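ZP: hey, is the EPZ complex queued? I don't see it on the tracker
AM: it wasn't, my bad. submitting now with these inputs:
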Amino acid sequence: MGGTMTVEGGRPLYGTVEVPAAKNSVLPLLAASVLCSGPVRLEQVPRLSDVEDCLAILRAVGCTAVWEGEDIQVSGPPVWCRMPLEETERMRASVLFAAPLLARLGRVETALPGGCRIGARPVDWHLSALEQMGAKVSQAGQRLVITAPAGLRGAELCLPGPSVGATETVLMAGCAARGLTILHGAAKEPEIVDLADFLNRCGGKIDGAGTDEIRIEGPCVLHGISYRPMPDRICASTLACAAASARGWVTIAGCSPSLYSPVLDILEGAGCTVMRGTSSATVGRMGALRGAGHLVTGGYPGLATDAAPLVAAALLSAEGKTWIQDRVFEARFGCAEGFRAMGAAAAVRGRTLELEGGCPLHGADVTARDLRGGAALVVAALGAAGRTRIEGCEYIARGYASLGEMLSALGARIV
Ligand code: EPZ
């Protein structure tokens, strides 16, 4: 879904929707498959442009990576160490391929990754972890060359700050490194636990994933497996916020509410009806919503930074203020411009989005500037009277295989 999307707002949503596999679990799992000596099958993977970019990277380094229905089959050891520049620069998650390729080949040529414009997003913590495990990093322009001719060795590491990606890099490097790796200050996101579960089922020895101290016993020979990635908690959050914005009654199936409880709690506090099951949640909204006051994002189990624009979109016309501070990225609220075009009182001050609330929304022509901001414009448009045209939907396609179709199946009118 590239290009433009048109939303006829003001129509309530009703029905049940199945949550797809998590983009932010599938991408590291595809990188980790490079470590496995046998074929790896990932089941029920959504067709995202970021996933296609990962398959292109795998093929460029000599692996076989093919769709088989909704599954992806990856096999074959990597033979080339040079990552393709275009996909590497376009997608930030490309940095996740560095450690496994370095572990298998002793050398990887990559580039400083790009990704959404939500902040600087350096990869210095990934690189310093690999250096502490015996790697050498040299930069030639945009190119990064990382070598470890003597292989990687276990080390006791401490991340300067919580980083999902850097934690995943250490998990993968630690499986290949000789000896024990201990990581202090690890991020605790569920996608890290999913990666650790995958690696352990392939033969890894990882303890503590999901806490801030992870121990990895290496080296371990990793065989291939067939694995179903965890559900996408940010996609589930998007659907919950869509129900809150559009009104109606939506059951979000296939994802435990515990994976996105801050979002559900905020919507319930604002006046939505929220019913939690073991692997589904129902979100209903009939009347007016109340503002949520001051909200702050943080690492798991706090309010996910990725969900901040989505929660904002659901509360644009609530009665009362909502202020959301994103403590993870410095430019998370590029969507505020689009919110204002729809009539919301939305201002960004530093890392905080300030919503005055109380303004009825109307359709407008808006532009997506990043993945979750784009999804937030769709969520806001569902609650706006009239037609909203959204440009830049290629950003949305990075993280949602079929957001328009999912919402249309619930009664939205989206073209
Ligand atoms: C992951 O990005 C997710 N992407 C992001 O989702 C998510 O927003 C983010 O985690 C935070 O939860 C994937 O998992 C593919 P970080 P990641 O490393 O790993 C700083 C989406 O919308 N940092 O946790 O890149 C960094 O600048 C995407 O699906 C360094 O300074 O995030 C940021 O301020 C967007 N140096 C903070 O840490 C480093 O080497 C958190 O970044 C690494 C990170």
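AM: back. The pocket of EPZ is lined by residues 23-24, 27, 92-93, 116, 119-126, 161, 163-166, 187, 191, 305-306, 328-329, 371-372, 399 (CB under 6 Å).
ZP: great, adding it to the tracker
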